[in-house]
Amino acid sequence: MRRALRFLAILVVAVALAATLGTLVPRPLWPASAAGEGTRHILVLKNPIHTDIAIPVDDEVRRRFRFLVDAGIPADAPEVRYIVFGWGGRAFYLQTPTWSQLKAVPVFKALTLDTSVMHVDVAGAITEPHPDVSGFDISEERFAALLDFIAASFQQGPNGPLVIENASYSSYDRFYEANGHFNALVGCNTWTAAGLRAAGLRTGWWNPLPVSLGLSMRLYN
């Protein structure tokens, strides 16, 4: 019993140390050279355990992600101001639309290993400032790199990204098969962090939770 408790204590300390260092050590270590004036305003949306990237829409973005409209997402509606992208574990994402529907199997898969999905939603005007919203200005070049990163996260079939049938939270969102595997170390927030780095921003070295990602973004951007 003592040995088990000692192991658990060491594990907790190791995870806490890794999370702290992952927040305080920037990635990349040195700021990248400026790549033009920040003319595009992107948003990071968060809840206690998850983050999404909200992309402002224009005609170019609508053309790039035309497949969303084909799947029933009203990305071309005039009132839509943002397309919201998130990456996560298949079981947890699809089987836990609300906290009241939390189940043991999706949690177990999220902590061990699961396939991944992309969740796509749309939004109108998003209020800033807001505790759950962080905005960043990036250049056109970095914006294009971020769009490339997001597009590369979708699994491709013969006719484009693979939509998951009968999987959505509402009539305005959809789930797609994604590239990569999800686990406790490589999760939704590390995907968001990787996307932000593609956009020319700096994050912590490892950001498994929204709070650590948010702190590192405030420290280094």
Describe the structure.
The chain contains 8 helices and 10 strands. Helix 6 (140-152) packs antiparallel against helix 7. The model has no long low-confidence stretch (mean pLDDT 88). A 6-stranded antiparallel beta sheet has the order 6-2-3-4-5-9. Strands 1-10 form a two-stranded antiparallel ribbon. It has a two-stranded antiparallel ribbon with strand order 7-8. A hairpin with a 4-residue loop joins strand 2 and strand 3 (51-56). It has 221 residues and is of the alpha+beta class. It is globular, with a radius of gyration of 18 Å.
Element-by-element helix/strand order: HEEEHHEHHEEHEEEHEH
Mean pLDDT figure: 88
- Across the major sheet, the strand order is 6-2-3-4-5-9
Share of residues in helices: 25-40%
Shape: globular
Biggest sheet overview: 6 strands, antiparallel
The number of strands is 10
Q: Which regions contain 5 or more consecutive residues with pLDDT less than 50?
A: none
- Radius of gyration, taken over Cα atoms and rounded to an integer in Å: 18 Å
Q: Decide which structural class fits the backbone.
A: alpha+beta
Cα distance spanning the termini: 46 Å
The number of helical runs is: 8
Strand content: 15-25%
Salient structural properties:
8 helices, two-stranded antiparallel ribbon, alpha+beta, 6-stranded antiparallel beta sheet
